Amino acid sequence: MSQEKLLETYMDIEGIAPSDLQVAAYIERLSNSSLLDNVALVESKEHKIEDTTFRRFKLTAMLRKNVHLGNEDIEGIRAGGKTAAWSF
Questions:
Q1: 10-84 classified as CATH 3.30.1660
Q2: 17: pLDDT strictly greater than 50
Q3: What is the pLDDT of residue 72?
Q4: Residue 3, CA distances (Å) to 6, 21, 23 in order
Q5: Confidence class of residue 73 from pLDDT cuts 50, 70 and 90?
Q6: Residue 71 region by backbone torsions, left for phi larger than 0, else alpha for psi between -120 and 50, else beta
């Protein structure tokens, strides 16, 4: 029986959103994901460009220990990520 080395994969996530409500909704969606654990807000700051106000945020998360992703899984996640930000 082969022995797998257990690794912990942490990630930093940065993004922008119209308001704190959208940031909170995004955190909730990530927290309910079957892929991630320990999703946490690190920073959320208000920015303004001309007449548009938005939030720039930073999160941390950890890949669940029992998750094993192949290339097909990763491509599916990437494809879904292109629309996820606009879904909430």
A1: yes
A2: yes
A3: 84
A4: 9, 44, 40
A5: confident
A6: alpha
The string of pLDDT tens digits covering residues 46-60 is 999 999 999 999 999
Q: What is the pLDDT of residue 83?
A: 56
8 Å CB contact between 44 and 5: no
Which two tokens mark 51? 């007449």
Pair of tokens at residue 78 = 């990437």
**Strand, coil or helix: 28:** helix
Query: Which residues lie across from 48 on neighbouring strands?
Result: 53
Nearest to 55 by CA among 22, 25, 31, 88: 22
